[in-house]
């Protein structure tokens, strides 16, 4: 009977070790596999790499790597890339792709925890906050003086209007929720905010009003 039971047990499919891995470990494994594939010599003169492997291909151009990030359709490797020590432009594009891919749906809290270091990088803070706000993640509580330093640099160096508005919104949130960082925030005040200029009432000066209902109006 024991022999029969043993024979029956051996017919059961083996449990996949990969499926039991934590999400973070799995995403790291995917990146490591892609890195290895990118470094493997090609048997022929040309080869087609999947988008993730293309990102780690030393022979690929910056434009090709950015295009590869935009083709990733799984948030798992995107979170890992954004939280890695990859060049800032790749991490930035990973955050942008995540926002596009999730389309208003929140990331898992474990993924957002991995993105917290992005709050201390001037190239990443604006887009990391967008993802955290969607999930109602309390990113303000995770900020410190390093975050303020990154935010100040971003505010003074940013040239894009959309990102500038995101940064100013981040600044305003921190001023309101983190009075303990007020001294640091005041030291790098961005001056007149685009948000204020965009939404303040328009006051007309030296305006001539013309009554179009009058028959003798020739305007």
Q: Could you write a compact summary of the structure shown?
A:
With 219 residues, the chain is mainly α. Helices cover 56% and strands 0% of the residues.
Describe this structure in words.
With 219 residues, this protein is an all-alpha fold. The protein has a domain at 23-40 and 48-117. The chain contains 12 helices and no strands. The chain has helices spanning 2-10, 23-39, 51-55, 62-71, 75-82, 88-102, 109-114, 125-134, 145-157, 161-177, 182-187, 194-199. α4 runs parallel beside α6. The longest helix has 17 residues, at 23-39. Residues 3-26, 43-47 and 193-205 have low confidence and may be disordered.
Cα(first) to Cα(last) distance is 105 Å
Helical run tally = 12
Largest sheet: none
Q: What is the typical, i.e. mean, pLDDT?
A: 77
Number of strands: 0
Helical fraction equals 55-70%
- Over all CA atoms, what is the radius of gyration? 26 Å
What spatial form do the alpha-carbon principal axes imply?
Answer: globular
Percentage of residues in DSSP E strands: under 5%
Order of helices and strands: HHHHHHHHHHHH
Label the structural class.
mainly alpha
Spans with pLDDT under 50 lasting ≥5 residues? 3-26, 43-47, 193-205
């Amino acid at each position: 009977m024991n022999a029969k039971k043993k024979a029956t047990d051996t017919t059961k499919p083996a449990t996949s070790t990969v499926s039991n891995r934590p999400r973070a470990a799995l995403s790291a494994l995917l990146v490591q596999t892609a890195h290895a594939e990118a470094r493997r010599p090609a048997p022929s003169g040309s080869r087609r790499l999947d988008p993730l492997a293309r990102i780690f291909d030393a022979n690929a151009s910056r434009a090709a790597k950015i295009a590869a990030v935009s083709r990733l359709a799984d948030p798992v490797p995107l979170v890992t890339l954004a939280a890695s020590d990859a060049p800032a432009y790749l991490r930035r594009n990973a955050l942008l792709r995540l926002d596009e891919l999730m389309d208003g749906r929140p990331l898992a809290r474990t993924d957002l925890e991995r993105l917290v270091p992005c709050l201390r990088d001037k190239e990443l803070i604006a887009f990391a906050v967008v993802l955290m706000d969607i999930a109602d993640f309390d990113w303000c509580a995770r900020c410190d003086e390093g975050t303020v330093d990154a935010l100040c640099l971003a505010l003074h160096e940013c040239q894009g209007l959309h990102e500038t508005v995101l940064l100013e919104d981040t600044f305003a949130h921190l001023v309101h929720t983190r009075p303990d960082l007020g001294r640091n925030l005041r030291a790098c005040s961005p001056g007149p905010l685009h948000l204020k200029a965009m939404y303040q009432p328009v006051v007309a000066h030296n305006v001539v009003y013309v009554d179009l209902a009058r028959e003798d109006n020739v305007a």
